[in-house]
Amino acid sequence: MPTSVSPTVSPSVSVLQRMLPAQVRFAYHAVRPLEFNGVVPLSRLPRLRELMQADAVDTLPPVAAQLRTEHAKDGGVQLSGRVQCCLSLRCERCLQPLDWPFDLELALRLVRSEADERRLLDHCEPLLLDDDWLPLHRLIEDEILLALPMAPAHSAESCPPLGINR
Ligand SMILES: [Zn+2]
């Protein structure tokens, strides 16, 4: 029987991956693009953590994010990239754990005024920054929460049979 090589992430491994800071100082008018590559453990994302069973939070890999900024021609700073992970949700049909892997594309427009926010609302997703801090953890968590399925469920055939609920 082949040995399992599933990519489990032990705490010692995740320490080696660069952890994204909760927020970074963000020079809004800086011309140079910024790049952020790193991971965020689920234990640092309280609103997501709440949705999952406690034991799942410690065994799941961290959220991986690759983000970059660039000035947009029509105003603001474009923040784009990807966020990937796998969450353990609860199936609404059988109440058993349900793996929900995701790979989200992020495209946010960072703005510093409500006027810009209103002006850009029709053709992009503006994010109003209150100050010179970019809240990386919060915005990553926001995007994942927005993408969560309304009623997570296995496909009808793949729910584990009733009677083996723990
Ligand atoms: Zn199910």
Polypeptide structure, described:
Residues 1-15 have low confidence and may be disordered. This protein has one domain (23-147). The chain has five helices and seven strands, in the order αββααβββαββα. The two termini are 28 Å apart. It has a five-stranded mixed β-sheet. The chain has a two-stranded antiparallel sheet with strand order 1-7. Helices cover 21% and strands 31% of the residues. The site of zinc ion has 7 residues, from loops.
Total domains? 1
Any low-confidence stretches, pLDDT <50, length ≥5?
Answer: 1-15
Q: How helical, in percent, are the residues?
A: 10-25%
The helix/strand order is HEEHHEEEHEEH
Q: State the helix count.
A: 5
Strands ordered across the widest β-sheet: 2-3-4-5-6
How far from one another are the termini? 28 Å
Query: Largest sheet at a glance?
Result: 5 strands, mixed
Bound molecules: zinc ion
Q: How many beta strands in the DSSP annotation?
A: 7
What is the average of the pLDDT values? 85
Estimate what percentage of residues fall within beta strands.
Answer: 25-35%
> What is the rounded Rg?
19 Å
Shape: elongated
Structural class: alpha+beta
Please render the helix and strand layout as text:
Blueprint: H1 11-16, E1 24-25, E2 35-40, H2 46-49, H3 54-59, E3 63-71, E4 77-90, E5 97-111, H4 114-120, E6 126-128, E7 133-134, H5 136-147
Parallel strand pairs: 5-6
Antiparallel strand pairs: 1-7, 2-3, 3-4, 4-5
Zinc ion (ZN) binds at residues 91, 93-94, 96, 153-154, 159.
What attributes characterize this protein structure?
binds zinc ion; 166 residues; elongated; two-stranded antiparallel sheet; alpha+beta
